[in-house]
């Protein structure tokens, strides 16, 4: 057998099976689209379950002088005491940047790209440092959680300051303000 005959006899394997590869890519893209659609349906379903939540209050025209201000991140809101039960109604589930301002009238939450809201001082129920809320887990004390009443629902809203050292001051000031407000309401 000559060298030419040996070379002609051996066949190399086909390098790429394009039909199979395209089929796998199409299947993967369909799976990703299905998962995304299911997640979106779950978010919409959760919002419809929470549709009984009243509309969020807007800030008053003259909220008064600022006691405290903070820039940071809004990480979401949950039913009070249930850190995984995210509230998505009225845009409360959307994470965003935040500018917080505490006045004698209440807590103003300004969120660029998301819906702003205001918590009147009489609706504030508590403040604490925590480590997680609705899928966001940080170091111990890395999250400022403000508990407030909206309609018949107690809500925990989680914020993280750009300067974490501010959290303790916020908890102390909010606690004092809540205690004073509850004392005058009685």
SSE arrangement:
Layout lengths: L2 H7 L8 H32 L16 E14 L16 E8 L2 E5 L6 E4 L3 E7 L1 E2 L2 E2 L5 E8 L2 E9 L4 H20 L1
Outline:
Helices cover 32% and strands 32% of the residues.
- Distance between the terminal alpha carbons, to the nearest Å? 108 Å
Overall outline: elongated
Q: Tell me the total number of β-strands.
A: 9
Q: What is the helix content?
A: 25-40%
Instruction: Tell me about the largest β-sheet.
Output: 7 strands, antiparallel
Strand content: 25-35%
Strand order of the largest sheet: 4-3-2-1-9-8-5
Question: Which stretches of 5+ consecutive residues score pLDDT under 50?
Answer: none
Mean pLDDT: 85
Class derived from helix and strand content:
alpha+beta
Order of helices and strands: HHEEEEEEEEEH
Number of helices: 3
What is Rg? Answer: 27 Å
